[in-house]
Amino acid sequence: MSALTIDSDRPRLRWSMLQLFNYHHLHLVSRCTRSRKACSFSGTMVKRKRNAVEGEGGSTPRSARVSKKAKLVEDVGITAVQIEKVGVKVSSTKSKRKVEASAQDVIDLSSFPERVSSEWKVGAHVSAAGGVENAVLNAAKIGANAFALFVKSQRKWSSPPLTESSISSFKSRMKELSYDSKFVLPHGSYLINLGNPDAEKREKSYECFLDDLRRCDALGLELYNFHPGSTLGIVDPSVSMTHIADCINRSHRDTPGSRVVTVLENMAGSGNIIGSDFAHLGEIISQVELKSRVGVCLDTCHMFAAGYDIRTKDGWNVTVESFDTHIGLEYLRGMHLNDSKTACGSKKDRHDNIGVGHLSIQTFAHILADPRMQNIPLILETPSHEGSNKNWDVWVKEIAVLNHLSSSSTLAASSSDEVSERMYFGSLTQGIKDTIKAAGTTGGGTASRGGNTVKRGRRKVYEEQEEESE
Ligand SMILES: [Zn+2]
Ligand SMILES: [Zn+2]
């Protein structure tokens, strides 16, 4: 668990294994070793080391709610647990349970970063390559409490429907890994432009949008995040905003009984893109009939690029107040936590790793100290710098740092010593920089998000992944 250890002199995160052991069926398995891409829960076994159950260095107070099965692991000192499923042979003795299975069918949970039991739902936009069900596993692998995914190819108008087995596997993994659908924020196709003034093209976008919504519904999800759209420079923004609201209303009518909330994302504001101004999002929502099915996702990089200076605590509070005035905090359903490669007001959508860009780690420290941001998905869309081993070490580190900030916010806030505070934030940022550097030297370098891996040259600067396409 060294990846999660921050600084030994910092307050320790109260890592809890509750999440990982709070399974109805503690079964986990697949062909998902680091050298393999495809994952399948064909078998059912969890292998976990004793020290992992006890948390960091054994000093973490053990939750009283640890499941009986986890307790069993401790009591008998077994190294693997197999829960009533077919495909794996088990023999047990009173003191030890021996599990027989081929190595490739076992996921070693001790290689998963621990997930923190917290009101802060930090995660990342993970790959769904090989099937949406793999996104759940990929989220757990990086210690995410929340995650985002594409429910189909984000750059194609149509994709094959989700298979029954994919849907059931997604749902069972959600349950097994204790993920709540409230903290899963699927991202819509980049091609969709509900504000397109051309009726025929808008219809095509609408069909793609509706298909996304139905996929979310089939997966038992509750949120669906999408980019509002663009005027394409042809019409006044107000015309596009009405088109967007009309499409949202139509989608709600076309999915009766669905609880999926259509979540508008704030944008950086390049070109003719709608949604960089909170007032625009508020205007669209005012035209939506079914208010319970509309919300907003706030992207920190986009906010900053659009001119909202959130670097100071005061600036952050003014921005949140502006959000409340123009939209309403009750509509906030999630956040994208990204640093920005470009300056405030640049209108450029260029994501950077946490603490490395213009926002700096202090921005995230005050966001992760604001209780209004609790219990909503907080999703990283930062460059992963993953190498060929796909270990996503950078996301693991970023998530650990963000969780650390959330757990030590009171201490940081009470610190009056400017120098030590600067050193503290400096060391956290350096930790992320070191992880990026290590990933770049060991992996060869790719920047990816959501399965959209783009090979770049070794040591090259990584560009952000999301695009404000028109
Ligand atoms: Zn987006
Ligand atoms: Zn972006």
From TrEMBL:
| Biological processes, Gene Ontology terms | base-excision repair
User: What GO CC annotations are associated with the protein?
Assistant: mitochondrion; nucleus
- Cite the Gene3D superfamilies for this sequence: Divalent-metal-dependent TIM barrel enzymes
Q: Which cofactor does it need?
A: Zn(2+)
The UniProt record lists the Xylose isomerase-like TIM barrel domain at: 138-401
Q: Does the keyword Hydrolase apply?
A: yes
Name recorded for this polypeptide: Apurinic-apyrimidinic endonuclease 1
Q: Which organism is it from?
A: Lentinula aciculospora
